[in-house]
Automatic annotation (TrEMBL):
Protein name: protein-glutamine gamma-glutamyltransferase
Keyword Transferase: yes
Annotated keywords: Acyltransferase, Calcium, Metal-binding, Transferase
InterPro entries in UniProt: Ig-like_fold (IPR013783), Ig_E-set (IPR014756), Papain-like_cys_pep_sf (IPR038765), Transglutaminase (IPR050779), Transglutaminase-like (IPR002931), Transglutaminase-like_sf (IPR036985), Transglutaminase_animal (IPR023608), Transglutaminase_AS (IPR013808)
Cofactor names: Ca(2+)
Cofactor binding note from Swiss-Prot or TrEMBL: Binds 1 Ca(2+) ion per subunit.
Top EC category: transferase
Length: 687
C-alpha cells in the first residue's frame, strides 16, 4: 500500500540548466522534449519495486492520441517512447531520470507514480517544450548561436520606414518574463481548433507546422477573439496607437487580465512581434522579417493594380495595395509533408490580410518553395510569393467615364531589402536572395512564369490585361523626386522634381503635383499640398523644380507613421502620361540614454534620458515609457513637464538589474507634437 502523498524534488535549477530553460522564473519544472530530466521523491515503500509512471496532458488523455504514457523503470532511456531510469535510492527516497520522445506533444503534463497494486500518487505537473538543441526534434537548429538568438534572446530589432530609407526600433519580446509561458499555453487552449475538437487539437501539438498555423490565427483577433485587434484607420480611440507599444509582455498581460478580450490595437509589426514571443517561449526558433514595398495581392493574380486620377491623386480603388513595409515571421522546422529540401525557415504571418481555409491565418509557407515559385505547396505560398514578387501596374482612372489607361508597369518594384536582425549583433541582415533570384535576371522571370502557370494564370483570357501596344509605348520624358536636406519631423521638407526630356525635339509638359500624409500601408489620410506647373523642356534637357513643404503645413496632417506620398502626374503634349512618385518617411528627432555608472546584479544604477525640443513652439503632454527584460519589472511611465522651444529635458530614474549579461533598455517618448520617439541601449550587467 502506497504511503502518503509523495513529496517531489524537481531539481529545478539543475534540470533548467541542462534544458536551456533557466531564464523562466517559474516554480514549476520546465523541460524540453527528447532529453532526460531528474526528479527525486519519497513516500513509496520498496521504491525500486514495480514502479509505474503515468505522464498525461490535455482534457482526455489516451495512448492513441499520444497524450498519455505509462512506463516503468528500464535500464536505459528509450529512443521511441517515454522512459524512466533509476539513478539512486535511499531508505525512503528514489531518484529517477525521465526521458520524453523527440516528438512528444508539448504542453503541461501531470505526472503520477504507481507502486504495485496501489492507486497512483500524484507527483505534480511540469511543462514540456520543443527542443531546438536536440537533433531528433523537428525544430532542431544545429547552430548554437542561432539557438541563443532565435529562442533565448528576449530583445529584437524590427526594421521599418521604406526602401529608400530603412529605419529600425527595438522590441522587448520578454518570452521568459512572469507568467508569459502560462499565457502562451492558454492561447493554444482558446483557438478555434481546440474549441471545435480539443482531443484532436492537443494530439497535434507535437507538430511545429500545426502549431505555427494555429498561432498565426490566434495572434490576431479576427475569427477567434485572439490576442490583438488590428486597426489601420489612423483613429485609435478606445485603445493604444500601434506605434506606442515597446514589447509583447504588456500586450499578452492585458489580454489575460481583460478576461481574454482582444488588445487594441495592432499593425503588422505588433502581430509579428507577439507571435515571435509565443513561438520562442514554446521553443520554436523564430525571427521577424521586414519586406519593403510589400504587395497585398487580394485577387491572387500576382499583379498589383494602382490607380491615379488626372491630378496625380492615388485612388482607393480595388483591393490590391503596396505597403511601404510589412513584417512577418520565419520559424525553423522540418517539413515532413513536403520533403527535406523544403525544411528550414518557414514563413508565418499573423497579420489578418486574407482568409486561408476560411479564417485569417497564413503559413507555414516554405521559404525555399517561395524562391522556386512552388506556389501550390502548403500553405498560402501564392499569397507570400506575391508579397515579394508581384508585378505592379499603374493606371490612370477617369471616374466620370470609368475608363482606365495603363501608365506603366514594373516588375522590379516589389519585395526589396528583405531584412532581419543579425545573430548576436544589433545589425540588419539582408535576406532578399533567400526569397528570390536576382531581380530582373532570366532565372527570376522564369520562376515568376512558373508561379503564374501553377496558378492557372498563363492562358486565361484577362480582359484587363494591357494590350501589347500599351506596354510597348515608350515615354517621352522621365522624372524622379530627389530629397534635398534632412527628412525630420519638425523641419521643412525640401524636394526636387527632376524632369528629363528623352526626345530630340522640345516637349511641353503639364505637371499636377500632390502630397498626402499616409499610413505605412500607403493608405491616404490627409492632403497636405498640391500644385501644378507647365514646363517646356528643350531637346534632351533636364530641369529641376524645387518643392518646399513647410513644417506648419504638414504638422497637423501627419500620421504617427510619419509617411508622406508625393506624386507628379506629367501630361506630355502628344505623348503618354508619366507618373512620378515617392514615398517619404520622416525621422523623429533623437533621444539620448546614458547609464550613469556600472550596472550590477541586484544593485541600483541611475539612467538619464535627455530630449531636446527641436521646434520653435512649446511641446506638452510629455510621457516617457521605459522597459527592458531583466533590467526592471514591468513598464516604468514618467510624466515630463512641458518643454519650451529648443529646451532640453533630462529625466533620471533607477534600475535594479536582476540578471547578468548584455541587456537592452527600451525607451519611448511622446508629446503633443511628436509621437513615439523610440530608442534602445545595450546595458552590460555584471555580477
Amino acid at each position: 500500500i502506497a504511503a502518503t502523498q509523495p513529496s517531489t524534488n524537481w531539481h529545478l535549477k539543475e534540470n533548467a540548466r541542462e534544458h536551456h530553460t533557466s531564464k523562466f522564473s517559474s516554480k514549476e519544472l520546465i523541460v524540453r522534449r527528447g532529453q532526460a530530466f531528474t526528479i527525486t521523491f519519497n513516500g513509496t515503500e520498496r521504491p525500486e519495486q514495480n514502479l509505474i509512471f503515468i505522464a498525461e496532458t490535455g482534457p482526455k488523455p489516451s495512448k492513441v492520441t499520444k497524450t498519455l504514457a505509462t512506463f516503468d523503470i528500464s535500464s536505459t532511456a528509450s529512443k521511441e517512447g517515454w522512459s524512466a531510469v533509476l539513478q539512486s535510492t535511499t531508505s525512503n527516497s528514489v531518484s529517477i531520470s525521465i526521458s520524453s520522445p523527440h516528438n512528444a506533444v508539448i504542453g503541461r503534463y501531470r505526472l503520477s507514480v504507481q507502486s504495485g497494486s496501489s492507486s497512483p500518487a500524484r507527483l505534480g505537473t511540469f511543462v514540456l517544450l520543443f527542443n531546438p538543441w536536440s537533433s531528433g526534434d523537428d525544430v532542431f537548429l544545429p547552430n548554437k548561436a542561432e539557438c541563443e538568438e532565435y529562442v533565448l534572446e528576449e530583445f529584437g530589432i524590427i526594421f521599418a520606414g521604406n526602401k529608400n530609407h530603412i529605419s529600425s526600433f527595438g522590441w522587448n519580446f520578454g518570452q521568459f518574463q512572469g507568467d508569459i509561458l502560462d499565457i502562451c499555453l492558454s492561447i493554444m487552449d482558446r483557438s478555434l481548433y481546440y474549441r471545435q475538437d480539443p482531443v484532436t487539437d492537443v494530439s497535434h501539438r507535437h507538430d511545429p507546422r500545426y502549431l505555427g498555423r494555429v498561432l498565426s490565427a490566434m495572434i490576431n483577433a479576427n475569427d477567434d477573439q485572439g490576442v490583438v485587434l488590428g486597426n489601420w484607420s489612423d483613429k485609435y480611440e478606445g485603445g493604444r496607437n500601434p506605434t506606442s507599444w515597446t514589447g509583447s509582455g504588456e500586450i499578452l498581460q492585458s489580454w489575460k487580465k481583460s478576461g481574454f478580450k482582444p488588445v487594441k490595437y495592432g499593425q503588422c509589426w505588433v502581430f509579428a512581434a507577439v507571435l515571435t514571443t509565443v513561438l520562442r517561449c514554446l521553443g520554436i526558433p523564430t525571427r521577424t522579417i521586414t519586406n519593403f514595398s510589400s504587395a497585398h495581392d487580394a485577387d491572387a493574380n500576382l499583379r498589383v493594380d494602382e490607380f491615379y486620377d488626372a491630378d496625380g491623386n492615388h485612388l482607393e480603388r480595388g483591393a490590391d495595395s503596396v505597403w511601404n513595409f510589412h513584417v512577418w515571421n520565419e520559424s525553423w522546422f522540418t517539413r515532413h509533408d513536403l520533403g527535406p529540401s523544403y525544411s528550414g525557415w518557414q514563413v508565418l504571418d499573423a497579420t489578418p490580410q486574407e482568409q486561408s481555409g476560411g479564417i485569417y491565418q497564413c503559413g507555414p509557407a516554405s521559404r525555399h518553395a517561395i524562391k522556386e515559385g512552388e506556389v501550390d505547396l502548403d500553405y498560402d505560398g501564392a499569397f507570400v510569393f506575391a508579397e515579394v514578387n508581384a508585378d505592379c501596374m499603374y493606371w490612370n482612372y477617369d471616374s466620370a467615364t470609368g475608363k482606365k489607361n495603363l501608365i506603366f508597369s514594373k516588375s522590379t518594384e516589389i519585395g526589396v531589402s528583405i531584412s532581419t536582425k543579425a545573430v548576436g549583433r544589433d545589425d540588419r541582415v539582408d535576406v532578399t536572395s533567400d526569397y528570390k533570384y536576382q531581380e530582373g535576371s532570366a532565372k527570376e522571370r522564369e520562376v515568376f512564369k512558373k508561379a503564374r502557370k501553377k496558378l492557372g494564370l498563363e492562358d486565361k483570357f484577362d480582359p484587363t490585361a494591357p494590350k501589347v501596344e500599351e506596354i510597348e509605348q515608350k515615354p517621352d520624358i522621365s522624372g524622379k523626386f530627389k530629397v534635398a536636406g534632412s527628412l525630420e519631423v519638425g523641419k521643412d521638407l525640401n524636394l526636387l522634381l527632376v524632369l528629363e526630356n528623352l526626345q530630340s525635339e522640345a516637349k511641353t509638359v503639364n505637371v499636377n503635383m500632390t502630397a498626402w500624409s499616409t499610413l505605412y500601408t500607403r493608405r491616404r489620410v490627409n492632403q497636405i499640398w498640391k500644385d501644378s506647373i507647365s514646363v517646356t523642356l528643350a531637346p534632351k534637357e533636364e530641369k529641376q523644380f524645387p518643392i518646399k513643404i513647410k513644417y506648419p503645413e504638414y504638422q497637423q496632417q501627419l500620421t504617427t507613421d510619419k509617411t508622406i506620398q508625393v506624386t507628379a502626374l506629367c501630361h506630355v503634349e502628344d505623348g503618354i502620361q508619366v507618373l512620378v512618385k515617392r514615398n517619404i518617411t520622416l525621422d523623429n528627432p533623437g533621444i539620448d540614454i546614458q547609464v550613469l555608472g556600472e550596472a550590477k546584479v541586484n544593485k541600483e544604477v541611475l539612467v538619464e534620458v535627455a530630449f531636446t525640443n527641436p521646434i520653435d513652439t512649446e511641446v506638452k503632454d510629455c510621457v516617457l515609457q521605459v522597459e527592458g527584460s531583466d533590467l526592471l519589472q514591468g513598464i516604468l511611465e514618467l510624466r515630463i513637464p512641458p518643454l519650451k522651444a529648443n529646451e532640453t529635458s533630462s529625466t533620471k530614474f533607477k534600475l535594479i538589474p536582476s540578471e547578468a549579461g548584455p541587456k537592452h533598455l527600451l525607451v519611448n517618448f511622446s508629446c503633443d507634437k511628436f509621437a513615439d520617439i523610440k530608442t534602445f541601449k545595450m546595458v552590460n550587467v555584471i555580477n
